[in-house]
């Protein structure tokens, strides 16, 4: 998920923030989790899910801490500028002797930090009142190389997001329509394996139908990349409502089949070959760090924000476990589909046609509303990456080139493959790994150093992460880099066996 949740000025209570965060995290990744669970085994999946949930919570607290440090620096920067303006207006009477002595007591280096005045008595200096996005925090706390690496990571992640969305909608449409009006009526979830070359409607192959839907999806939603769009509150309410109806329906239908003795699943405890995709899916499914500024800033009372986030992660962990365990015991491993909703389009699972079509087409509605927003976010990140102070882009570059390099690559990836589990796994394992682990850890480390330099070593950030010891930052960094190595080695070994 990407993009803002609300405008900075719209405040809401901590409990509304809890609901927003739940909706932000639980998205498309959850639909690919049951297949990943079945592939890796229930015990390995549960342990890894709990561990990655803990790691994601830790790095979420790192981002909140960095947001507070960034707010403090911006606040003091404005205060210093105001003081300097006052001094310029009346240099003879505007500064007291005590202020002069205080200012002279600090050494001024040639490269002076943004803020150099220390006042430990300000209780609200670290209050999070201004939305500071991750890109702005990277610019404040990282050097030029770090900023470029940040934008590279977020751009790759958004490309992966768009490729997943561009493939998920045509896959859902292909599966539903090929079964409804094609040669395999009502057989989507019955365990029959179809090849891309199998017939869909008459002489039209399934892969042809998929690519026709992909072309239609691109033509309908692609043009929004060339304009500015945003997710309205009413659109968010509608998509959230549809999402929860779909998830609750799938859990209830699976539980009914299990209670009637119709369960077909016999999941294994552990299959190490499935860990790679499971890791990527779990990372993708816990992703929220890049949207935290727009989510946390409007919360009216942030005193217990870390406890609020912890409660959210516990609820999300329980929900993912319930969804995945009901799935792997209800359906055989070989019948679970990449997009879990498609398992409920079989007449034997549910004989109400409306529910079958609602679940089968659910990803089409929700993803179609998100695709333009993420595309515009990616386009704006490209513009920010190449922007130079005081410069402007020519009309052709601004309106044609940037939207084109945003739209074309993910559509090409979706044209070449519709393996959603692999797309989610690779996106989560690489770009998601960087955004969820490495960037928050570096933000926490650099913001702590800057805070000590600017305000003194005795100043304590009121939103300091519970994982304040440097050990945790080092642990996250080692874990993140180890995951890069593990996933890459696993891919290389898997390819060499083929």
From TrEMBL:
Domain of life from the UniProt record: Eukaryota
Cellular compartments annotated: Membrane
Chief subcellular location: membrane
Alphabetical keyword list: Glycoprotein, Membrane, Transmembrane, Transmembrane helix
Lipid bilayer topology: Multi-pass membrane protein
InterPro entries referenced in this protein's UniProt entry, alphabetically: AA_transpt_TM
GO cellular component: membrane
Pfam families: Aa_trans (PF01490)
This protein's record includes keyword Nucleotide-binding: no
Residue intervals of the Amino acid transporter transmembrane domain: 20-67, 135-467
Family statement: Belongs to the TMEM104 family.
Protein name: Transmembrane protein 104
Gene, per the UniProt record: TMEM104
